[in-house]
Automatic annotation (TrEMBL), chain B:
Function: Required for the formation of a threonylcarbamoyl group on adenosine at position 37 (t(6)A37) in tRNAs that read codons beginning with adenine. Is involved in the transfer of the threonylcarbamoyl moiety of threonylcarbamoyl-AMP (TC-AMP) to the N6 group of A37, together with TsaE and TsaB. TsaD likely plays a direct catalytic role in this reaction.
Binding positions (substrate): L137, V138, S139, G140, G141, D171, G184, D188, N283
Binding site for Fe cation: H114, H118, D311
Record keywords: Acyltransferase, Cytoplasm, Iron, Metal-binding, Transferase, tRNA processing
Domain of life: Bacteria
Database matches in SUPFAM superfamilies: Actin-like ATPase domain
Protein known as: tRNA N6-adenosine threonylcarbamoyltransferase
EC number of this enzyme: 2.3.1.234
InterPro entries attached to this UniProt entry: ATPase_NBD, Gcp-like_dom, KAE1/TsaD, TsaD
């Protein structure tokens, strides 16, 4: 979970602060306070924001929804656009030139993946078992690539593991600069909900 | 302009995305987006489907509520949100959104208890709560009897279902009779054409031996099984199933137990007001029977109108308004969603 603040102008951005916590259980509790802290550290208030950028995943659904609900609500309250970007794109861009496979851990022994040419996505994002991923790249990045390195059979660059908040903002520079209208923030689920009926509905509520 | 607090409430504990706005005890807006149709083919709520629907619905529902109340987020004095109990993933969407609104608009946030909100909503219809009162909450998710001494401090659970929720029993019997989901409204409608004395179904936990341990608890699982057996026996013998009689007799068994136990709780605790909430409170037989029986003991029954009985944002706003008026401190921005939130906690402590 990452919250980053940057000043955007002249086609570039200047980072003002970034905070990261790796604790999947804590999203719901900690994201809003973390945003508040990043703003306060930079001497800013929410009303100083001109746009919000949020990673649409793919990734764990619960965490994504917390991020997107928070971003959408803040955008609505402040009357500013909120832009969604594919989280894998931040890794693909950070991986640099050449043909690169980005793979993150999708749990259930699967990976989320996409292929990039010089930082630009050419296929994906998709979800699959590592053995079923069509590998068409010279190297791979991401924690999914590290975890299943033997299966992919290409060199792994383990310096690019998590997307930075600043990289997400960079992905939306064009829209921010153009003052584009914000979109509906829907996670890149890539999986259908498990179609099993809830047999014991809200049982805890008795 | 009134100096009563203007409070916004957000509810996402199950399958309804609700945003309500109240000023004091006055309801200004009550907007709901329901994902019930997406769950119908599963015969119950699918948590992941509900969570996805909440995220899609929260921003447009908020817009409609603000428009309906003709206010902006800047005008709001406090934001209340259901922190629990409920479906964990569904609660998280509402809590995250509430935090986003609170942070961006610089407003205090109250993470509140969903069941207490079902009680507080009655203030929008009938004014301040007489305390103490007994509240009976009956829906697809809850069947609880509560003693309400002080709705700002905590509520004492007197009893609850030990198996199915009352509304769940309606859903299951409706499915058995091929009537669809949710079962409450269809059974209520069909029961009007049936004879409620036609079949004698069991009344769970009403035997003398249950008095000591389960005086105020409910059980609907045995009733559901009895209905299933009765219907199957009919089908096996090749006779037609009198669906209206089954519906009426089943509904009467549920309402008989609910009202008898609720009024027993009122008398045991010397309480003169019974509040009924939750989706099953919309059941016509339940309302009638409760009023008939309460009248005999001089007990007043308060049931909010059906739209306020089912899950909605107005009830959360009503509880928030109650807490603000009582000077209760808001929760902190790191408040957790708690799928098993206890009734001893009306709001997440600040
Ligand atoms: Zn409820």
């Amino acid at each position: 979970m990452t919250a980053a603040l940057a000043e955007v102008g002249g086609g570039g951005l200047r980072g003002l602060g970034e905070r990261r916590v790796v604790d999947p259980r804590a999203h719901g509790e900690l994201l809003a306070p973390q945003i508040q802290r990043v703003l306060a550290d930079a001497g800013k208030a929410p009303r100083d924001l001109g746009a919000i950028v949020a990673g649409l995943g793919p990734g764990p659904f619960t965490g994504l929804r917390v991020g997107l609900a928070t971003a959408a609500a803040m955008g609505q309250a402040l009357g500013i656009p909120a832009y969604g970007v594919c989280t894998l794109d931040a890794l693909g861009r950070a991986a640099g030139p050449g043909r690169v496979l980005v793979a993150t851990d999708a749990r259930r022994r699967e990976v989320y993946f996409a292929t990039y040419q010089d930082g630009v996505r050419v296929t994906g994002p998709e979800v699959a078992k590592p053995a079923d991923v069509p590998v068409d790249a010279e190297r791979a990045v991401g924690e999914g690539a590290v975890k299943y390195s033997e299966i992919f059979g290409i060199p792994i660059d383990d310096r690019v593991l998590y997307p930075s908040g600043e990289a997400l903002i960079a992905l939306a520079l064009g829209e921010i600069g153009a003052g584009a209208e914000g979109g509906v923030l829907t996670p890149l689920y890539l999986r259908r909900p498990d179609a099993v009926a809830a047999t014991e509905r809200k049982h805890v509520l008795q | 302009m009134s100096d009563e607090p203007l409070v916004l409430g957000i509810e996402t504990s199950c399958d309804e995305t609700g945003v309500g706005i109240v000023r004091g005890h006055t309801l200004l807006a009550d907007q709901i987006a329901s994902s019930v149709e997406q769950h119908a083919r599963f015969g119950g709520v699918v948590p992941e489907v509900a969570s996805r629907a909440h995220l899609e619905a929260i921003v447009p529902t908020m817009r409609r509520a603000l428009d309906e109340a003709k206010v902006t987020l800047n005008d709001i004095d406090a934001i209340a949100v259901t922190a629990g109990p409920g479906l964990a993933g569904a609660l998280l969407v509402g809590v995250a959104a509430a935090k986003g609104y609170a942070l961006a608009a610089d407003k205090p946030i109250y993470g509140v208890n969903h069941l207490a909100a079902h009680v507080a909503v009655d203030t929008l219809e009938h004014g301040p709560l007489p305390e103490p009162a007994v509240a009976m909450l009956v829906s697809g998710g809850h069947s609880s009897l509560l003693l309400v001494d002080d709705l700002t401090a905590g509520v004492t659970p007197l009893g609850a279902t030990i198996d199915d929720a009352a509304g769940e029993a309606f859903d299951k019997v409706a499915r058995l009779l091929g009537l669809g989901f949710p079962g409450g409204p269809v059974i209520d409608r069909l029961a009007r054409e049936g004879d409620r004395g036609a079949i004698s179904f069991p009344r769970g936990l009403t035997a003398p031996k249950d008095f000591a341990k389960h005086r105020f608890d409910f059980s609907f699982s045995g009733l559901k099984t009895a209905v299933a057996r009765w219907v199957e026996a009919r089908e096996r013998s090749g006779e037609p199933v009198p669906a209206a009689d089954v519906a009426a007799s089943f509904q009467d068994a549920v309402c008989d137990v609910l009202t008898a136990k609720a009024l027993d709780a009122c008398r045991e605790h010397g309480v003169e007001t019974l509040i009924i909430g939750g989706g099953v409170a919309a059941n016509s037989r339940l309302r009638l029977l409760a009023e008939e029986r309460a009248a005999k003991f001089g007990i007043r029954v308060r049931v909010p109108r059906p739209q306020l009985c089912t899950d909605n944002g107005a009830m959360v706003a009503a509880l928030g308004s109650h807490l603000v008026a009582a000077g209760i401190a808001p929760s902190r921005l790191d408040l957790p969603a708690d799928s098993a939130m206890a009734l001893t906690s009306i709001a997440v402590a600040g």
